Amino acid sequence: MKKMFFIQVLACAFSCGGALYAYVSQQNDLTRIRIEIPRLSRDVRHLEEQNSRLRFEIERFENPKHLMELAKRPEFSHLKHPLSSEIFVLHTEEEVLSPTTEKTFETRSRAIFIGAIPDR
Hints:
By secondary structure, this protein is mainly alpha-helical. It has helices at 2-61, 64-72, 93-97, 105-110; strands spanning 88-90, 112-114.
């Protein structure tokens, strides 16, 4: 009788110990995640700032005034504006299957524009 009671108490102690271990392990995982959240939010904020800075640089570089200044430089003197008869537009299959009457920036970004090769 005492032997059976001892086995039941031992089984109860092991099951309670296992439940407590699982609870503590879950709390440790939760704490680890809570510690990582501020670091990850700092990283996201840093990437957003960097993305904003790079967008500004792209906009500044693609500014028509800047492009015209680049065109006046000697290393780009061989470039010329193509005539409208020298421009070819290659459309994607998607544009051919569903032609739209309204030209949008999105449609333009899917097309490939090829200009003339400069004279050498």
